[in-house]
Amino acid sequence: MTEPIPAYGFKPETDRSYLVFCPEHGGWHVGEWWTVDGPGRWVLACDAGVDLTVSHVLELPADPITVSVTIAWSLARQVTAAGRA
After folding, report:
1. d(CA 37, CA 56)
2. For the segment 6-63, what is each residue's pLDDT rounded down to a tens digit?
3. I need a surface site. Which of 5, 16, 30, 38 has the fewest CB within 10 A?
4. Model pTM?
5. Coil, helix or strand for 2?
6. Do residues 48 and 71 touch, judged by C-beta distance below 8 A?
7. What does the pLDDT read at residue 9?
8. Would you give the DSSP letter of residue 16?
9. Cα–Cα distance between 62 and 17 in angstroms, integer?
10. Selection from 6, 12, 64 nearest residue 43 by Cα
11. Looking at per-residue confidence, does 72 or 21 come out higher?
């Protein structure tokens, strides 16, 4: 999965973290599908006491540093190109 997919109908694996988009919580977070105390709900990976309302899901990148550098490089190219226009 390389593009965000709608959370509706997505079947997450338990014991796995995902990047989840939560408009009501300000954007992207690392979340988990929590089934310990019920049928299942999205929670913050760092605090299972915080429920998330998820609209889209993405798998976590294998190497977050590489992804961050790629995004920064892409943004720098866009800014440079905009300055030339």
Report:
1. 23
2. 999 889 988 888 989 999 988 899 999 999 888 899 999 989 899 999 999 988 876 6
3. 38
4. 0.68
5. coil
6. no
7. 84
8. -
9. 12
10. 12
11. 21
CA distances from 37 to 14, 20, 33, 60, 68 (A): 13, 21, 11, 24, 35
Complete domains list, the chain, with CATH? 5-60 (2.30.30)
Is 25 strand, coil or helix? helix
CA distance 85 to 32: 43
Q: Is 17 exposed, middle or buried (0-12, 13-18, 19+ CB in 10 A)?
A: middle
Strand intervals (E) in the chain: 5-6, 17-22, 27-34, 41-44, 47-51, 56-59
Q: For residue 65, what is the DSSP state? A: H
3-state secondary structure of 64: helix
- Token pair recorded at residue 8: 């509706």
- Report the C-alpha gap between 62 and 85 in whole angstroms: 36
